Amino acid sequence: MAKNKRILALDIGASKLVLGEFSAVPGQVPELINYGIGYFGADVENETDLSAYIVSTVRDIMREHGIKKAPLIMSVSGQAVFPRFVKLPPVDSDKVFQIVQYEAEQNVPFPIDEVVWDYQLIEDPESDDTNVMLVAVKTDTVVRLTDCVVAAELEPEIVDVAPMALYNLVRFNYPDLEGCTMVLDIGSRSSNLIFIEGQRIFSRSMPVAGNAITQELMKEFEVSFEDAEALKKEHGFVAFGGVYAGPDSEIADRVSKIVRNVITRLHAEVNRSINFYRSQQGGSPPSLVLMCGGSSIIPHTDTFFREKLQIQVEYLNPFVNIAVGEGIDAEQAGMDVHMLGEVAGLAVRRSLQCPVEINLMPPNLVAKKTLRRRQPFFAVSAVGLVLILFCWWAYFAQAKSIFKKRQNFISGRIERLTSDQRRLKSAQKQEEEVAADFAYLTGLVEQRTRWVRILEDIHTCMQDGMWLTSIRPMSADGQFITDIEIMGRGFPDKLKDEQEATPHIEQFSDRLSKKDNFTEDTKITYQPVQKTGAHTREFTILLNLKEPIRIR
After folding, report:
1. Which helix (H) or strand (E) is 330 found in, with range?
2. d(CA 350, CA 357)
3. Could you tell me the pLDDT band of residue 34, with boundaries at 50, 70 and 90?
4. pLDDT at residue 218, rounded to an integer
5. How far apart are CA 151 and CA 223, in angstroms?
6. pLDDT tops 50 at residue 2
7. Out of 50-54, 194-198, 532-536, which region has the weakest mean confidence (pLDDT)?
8. Which residues have CB under 8 Å from 377's CB, separation 6+?
9. Comparing 108 with 375, which gets the higher pLDDT?
10. Region 136-160: what's the mean pLDDT?
11. What integer is the mean pLDDT of 70-78?
12. What is the pTM of this model?
């Protein structure tokens, strides 16, 4: 087999991963030639980061099954992505991307620069509208998964989504389906529903799956995660009532009831999804259910859904049209067939044109691949750069002698200019000293003029029968005069008239506060009560300056 015909398909789930090796010639049906399934052995509800498990599991599968490096297509879990289905009005093809990008920004529940997203146009033959399926995943989520793959010395070419891989597989393996077909993929942490009806597709992830059974068993029997998993595998089946015989009948009875409770919850989620698909997406009720996933083979699960939904229920066969190599153990493959749907769908995606082709490759890998494609151009550019450098070297060698001649001339000129510069700096320094003296003298004149204006403002605001006894500048920090305190006296018969409502001292304060030199904070700070028989009345007013006066 030629090396370039081999591809690897990797499906990363919540508790396990499946790595398949296919012979995939473009345009031909792929053939499964090797595969391996690895379990993380970790409590997926409590483990926050499974990166180390993923890397070690991929390496173990490749070593144990003799799988060599090859181009890789991988898928991420449906629980990690955000599918949205929107309708676009009739629009020119050159404007479709702009409208889809706007819809993505409105429908994705995260800032658009924090996600990797892609879309697929789905034509509706019964309507002029165009259906768009948007699929987004948080950038850090997909980067964490691809980093694990790279750490295992593999490099993904396409990052697909598990439900879309199943959709492409069903469309390829079951081309003659009529009506609405529902794929029920029961995994570990979540279950995925895919509705297939003609060209229509609708997908939804539900947070009820096999791990919910394990968690309930841990509570019921007060055992560890590993022991609860063992109980589920040994005694788990969907109970239908009655009494069970045998030495383990009591344990089996308790386990089966827990399994039935969880599967009943899953059935309720399935019913809600069917109703949503019919009411919001205009779909038809499903006439066939295809089951797959690691938790779908719990005994009597298919019978349970067949009785509850009252429709035909079968297990999805990934190898209806996909060949299985002679080196595959047929008996073991038959036991694992329910977990091979995603990798088979990825192989179909690599070999043939598929109805849904989503790629959620993270920006760092896109940039890396772009750089690799441009490397030949960089090589040509490097040769051109060398030639350019050689031409420049020849030019500079020729120009060197000319430069030396001009250098001698310029050196003499620089010496003369340097001497002139020293004289110029000396003159500039003298000019700056004169300017500083001028500014100082100007400031003194300005301050003197300002004091004259301040005294004139005080004088013009004074009332008849009033005189000042003291004018005292006030400074809070010793650097600026911010207030002026004036003290004065006046004849009582002049300071207040019986017909006037405002005393003359208050009028004097009000007039001062309206002058340009003072603020409205100008106020009377001292105005004692007039004593009987006194000939004069004292007062003190604090004038607040609008512009403080620097103290030199």
Report:
1. helix 330-336
2. 10
3. very high
4. 92
5. 34
6. no
7. 532-536
8. none
9. 108
10. 92
11. 92
12. 0.67
Q: What share of the chain is helix, strand, coil (3-state, %, to 5)?
A: 45, 25, 30
How far is C-alpha 157 from the chain's CA centre? 23
Q: Has residue 68 got a pLDDT over 90? A: yes
Locate tokens 């706007």: which residue?
102
- For residues 313-331, one letter each, b for 16 or more C-beta atoms within 10 angstroms of the residue's C-beta and e for the rest, the string is beebbbbeebebeeebeee
CB 160 within 8 A of CB 73: yes
Integer Cα distance of 61 and 69 in angstroms: 12
Q: What is the DSSP letter of 296?
A: T
Residue type present at position 497: D
Instruction: Please state, in angstroms and rounded to a whole number, the distance separating the CA atoms of residues 454 and 459.
Output: 9
Strand, helix or coil for residue 307: helix
Provide DSSP, 10-43: EEE-SSEEEEEEEE--TTS--EEEEEEEEE--S-
The closest of 303, 289, 278 to 193, measured between CA atoms, is: 289
Rounded distance, CA 540 to CA 487, Å? Answer: 4
Helix, strand, or coil here: 88? Answer: strand
3-class secondary structure, 473: strand
**C-alpha–C-alpha distance, residues 371 and 369, integer Å:** 5
Average pLDDT over residues 115-135: 81
By percentage, how much of the chain surpasses pLDDT 70? 92
Q: Which residues neighbour 110 within 8 Å (Cβ) at sequence distance 6 or greater?
A: 82, 136, 138
Residue among 277, 309, 296, 390 nearest 336 (CA):
296
- Other beta carbons within 10 angstroms of residue 549's beta carbon come to 17
**What totals of helices (H) and strands (E) does the chain contain, helices first?**
13, 18
The per-residue pLDDT of the chain, averaged, comes to 86
**Residues in CB range of 521: below 8 A, 6 or more apart:** 513, 544
Largest CA distance in the chain: 132
